Amino acid sequence: MYRKILYPTDFSETAELALEHIKTMRKLGGEKVILLNVIDISEEENLLSTIFKIFNIGSKEREEIEKKLKDESLKKLDEIKKELESLGFEVKNISVFGTPHEEIVKVANEEDVDIIIMGSHGKTNIKEILLGSVTEHVIKKSDKPVMVIRRAEG
Description:
Helix 4 (100-110) packs parallel to helix 5 (133-141). The protein has helices at residues 13-25, 41-55, 59-85, 100-110, 133-141; strands at 4-8, 32-40, 90-98, 115-119, 146-149. Helix 5 (133-141) links the parallel strand 4 (115-119) and strand 5 (146-149). The protein contains 5 helices and 5 strands; from the N terminus they run βαβααβαβαβ.
């Protein structure tokens, strides 16, 4: 039924809860997982712009910082990949710069996944909000089924 799964992650606690659900999908016929980390350009742009102004950093340094961000993202995805491969999944890592909900929907379509499984909130969402804005946008814009895993109460 859901053989090809897209797992967008920001490495937050809620994303980790979603990963636990993905692991159970192996027993239900899940075969392939697309791991996706979107490095949010709006967050990065705000942070980097401030740093560049304070320290008078040029474009070469900016490229180095972006490379480090991408390398760190891929390193974290590789850890998850190894874990899922040990369960028998075929796994593909994707790390991109962009607007998270747009990239999630784009990758879901490009990879022709059967389902998107993601956490209800990422790192930056306020606890009282019912559903995170990225998740809400993905639900509204995607033609694919979306399984949303709520964060633990507490």
